[in-house]
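Pilot study result, target chain (152 residues):
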Amino acid sequence: MTESTEEKNITTNRKARHEYFINQTYEAGISLLGTEVKALRQNKANLVDSYAIVKDGEILLINANIGAYDFGNINNHDPFRTRRLLLNRSEIKKLNRAVLEKGATLIPLRLYFKKGLVKVELAIASGKKQYDKREAIAERDYQRSEERKFKQ
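Predicted structure:
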């Protein structure tokens, strides 16, 4: 029996890489209800405007939208409920120290399935200023133009 480490993306937070400098990433499990997992299999998730906080020695994911399961009943989950992230105690302490620094925040970058389990890629990030964003766009445009020249 071979173990598959294949990852299947559910959703990515594309806005995060534009709005923040990504300093370090962590892989975390997430505590979900059954209908939430089924909704994720239907790709009903959105991480835009979501973030994580450290509270009472736990990491909580806030504002992550996991839509309602199509075939659920009245016991369906709340799409914007606060969800607990599963990390080692030492990792939680590292993240807590990083968040206490000025300007650092915890941002989820993507949700994905790994070996049948839902995982969250969590990043320690610091906010970009407007001129940083313009600089990144100019750099990307320059790279594209260089690639076009190289192809010709």
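One observation from the pilot: The CA atoms of residues 21 and 89 lie 25 Å apart. A full batch analysis is planned for the follow-on phase.
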